[in-house]
Amino acid sequence: MTSPSVSAENPELQALAEAVDRRRNFAIISHPDAGKTTLTEKLLLYGGAIQQAGAVKARGEQRKVTSDWMELEKQRGISITSTVLQFDYGTNTINLLDTPGHQDFSEDTYRTLAAADNAVMLEDAAKGLEPQTRKLFEVCRMRQIPIFTFINKMDRPGRDPLSLLDEIESELGLTPWAVNWPIGSGEQFRGVIDRRTRRVILFSRAERGRQAEELEMDADDPRLLEMVESDLLELALEELDLLEAAGAELDLEMVHAGELTPVFFGSAMTNFGVRPFLDAFLELAQKPMPRTSSAGEIETIRPGFSGFVFKLQANMDPRHRDRVAFVRVCSGKFEKDMAVQHARTGKTIRLSRPQKLFGQDREVVEDAYPGDVIGLNNPGMFAIGDTLYLGSKVEYEGIPCFSPEIFSWLRNPNPSAFKNFRKGVNELREEGAVQILYDTDESKRDPILAAVGQLQLEVVQHRLENEYGVATRLEPLGYQVARWVTGGWQELEKVGRIFNCKTVRDAWNRPVLLFKNEWNLNQLREEHPDFALSAVAPVVSGVEPISL
Predict the structure, then answer these.
(1) pLDDT tens for each residue of 86-115
(2) What structural domains does the chain harbor?
(3) Which pLDDT band, with edges at 50, 70 and 90, does 56 fall under?
(4) By the 8 A CB rule, do 82 and 112 touch?
């Protein structure tokens, strides 16, 4: 439904509202190895965006997965960066925000979720909820993002489906509503029953990488018993009756408020249940929504374009040493070559080569609408959280940095490579690959890498060597906890000398305290109860970061 202010008398706003209604935008969240990359590939397959899905760990002549473009991802068979995949399905345009599955890269996922209107929570049918899934769910809850649950790997031995629903409700406080129900599991997984229509969808294995063949019929069709074992069908129907007796209803308002999760069962690897999930998701998902800003809530059909940068990525095309800013369009219509205002600097910027993104592949885009993500060439002018706009000034809420847990000096053993070393460190900091801290003693010029997980540091080293030609060495600092001083250097001076703690500064010259463990942090809190510390870095506006 469009806004009452949109009418046939204003054809431009009418066209804008129709474009918004057609769009759906979502991120997939999961624990590593739950099958996220595989599900992403199969959604693209059913959307017609690719003709054949690749295996997660490609061998021989098989295609590498579309969404994992970085060399290290291909070597390890995991997703360690976020990317964007836009494709059409029916009359809808879908923006799929692919996020890192590895827990060491959860901060990249936090940033990506800031650009999402919906989330798909992927679970392994044998393992249920896992730590990384719980952690990312809390971010979705904080942002009140609607959550759709896909219980994967039903073609393998797994837990009882009813117990999986109970776990979601008891551990996450989220009401589950099964949109479809599995007939059998493991080797006896035969298909699913659509709860709303009581139609059965049977699957047969297809040629590797191709769409699964489906047969659909009523649950009371006598031919069904010729194709499915009677005990499997009876059990599935009995369990469906139990769910109906529980009394919960599919309430779209609760779904969009993040209080009720539609649940789907299937197997991404064998394509079972992927198309029914995609069809139902497009029907139930939230379209691009208004965003909170310094000027209040900004409607998607606000005439002037606005959007914010949620991710930066260097060297997506190693041949051109490029840098790309990922911009989520929030309002109005974006058009190629438009001149926009940069809220942080006040400068006017012409966006002459906007790109439609599909993993590593890109093409010049002529226009984009709320819910879409575009790529902009970034010659150092954009930072994560920046707002771009037309018309009256608007600035969207910034994206905070979270507390790192691993700290290492990054040493450059080759002084002749300092120029490339500095360029690489600055560009990787800009894109948020890792946080950079500096010693308060300015004679110590080597940066301190601060990360959530060890793999983040390995990726930085790998990229410095392969993208910038600089081999580096890491020296661990031995600290595990970081806290920002809320009142800045002035408050830190009032406290005086602090024991069992190292003081460093971040890229915005703010004091950060490093502690060896939580016990040392709690000791400081006991000694100075009024000394305010934060685990989340304050959002910075209008200040340029320090470069190496």
Answers:
(1) 888 989 999 988 766 545 455 677 778 889
(2) 24-284 (3.40.50.300), 291-389 (3.40.50.300), 401-537 (3.30.70.3280)
(3) very low
(4) yes
Structure token pair of residue 283: 């029907």
Orientation of helix 36-46 relative to helix 274-284, angle to 10°: 80
- Tell me how far apart the alpha carbons of residues 153 and 348 are, in angstroms, rounded to a whole number: 50
Tokens representing 499 are: 């024991």
Q: What does the chain come to in residues?
A: 548
Phi, psi dihedrals of residue 456, rounded to the nearest 5°: -55, -45
* Dist. CA 23–CA 213, nearest whole Å: 27
User: Torsion angle of alpha carbons 448, 454, 434, 469, nearest 10°?
Assistant: 80
Other Cβ atoms closer than 10 A to 411: 13
**260 CB neighbour count, 10 Å cutoff:** 21
SS3 of 498, please? coil
Residue with tokens 């709320």: 370
* Rg of the Cα atoms in the chain: 25
Going through 412-500 in order, the beta strands assigned E by DSSP cover 435-439, 448-451, 473-476, 481-485
- Pair 94, 24: CB distance under 8 Å: yes
Other Cβ atoms within 10 Å of 541 Cβ, number? 14
- Which of 548 and 327 is assigned the larger pLDDT? 327
d(CA 261, CA 288): 18
**CA nearest to 545, candidates 514, 488, 505, 491:** 505
Write the DSSP string, 256-273: HTTSEEEEEE-BTTTTBT
* Complete DSSP assignment for 381-426: ---TT-EEESSS---BPP-PEEPP-EEEEEE-S-GGGHHHHHHHHH
For residue 294, give both structure tokens.
């310094």
Q: How many CA atoms lie within 13 A of 260 on its CB side?
A: 15
Nearest to 326 by CA among 179, 112, 502, 471: 112
Backbone angles phi, psi at 87, to 5 degrees: -155, 160
**99: which 2 tokens?**
């996020």
Per-residue pLDDT tens for 378-437?
667 788 888 999 999 999 987 766 678 889 999 999 989 999 999 988 888 877 767 899
Q: List CB contacts of 207: < 8 A, sequence separation 6 or more.
A: none
Residue 514: partners with Cβ closer than 8 Å, 6 or more residues away: 407, 477, 479, 481, 482, 501, 502, 503, 504
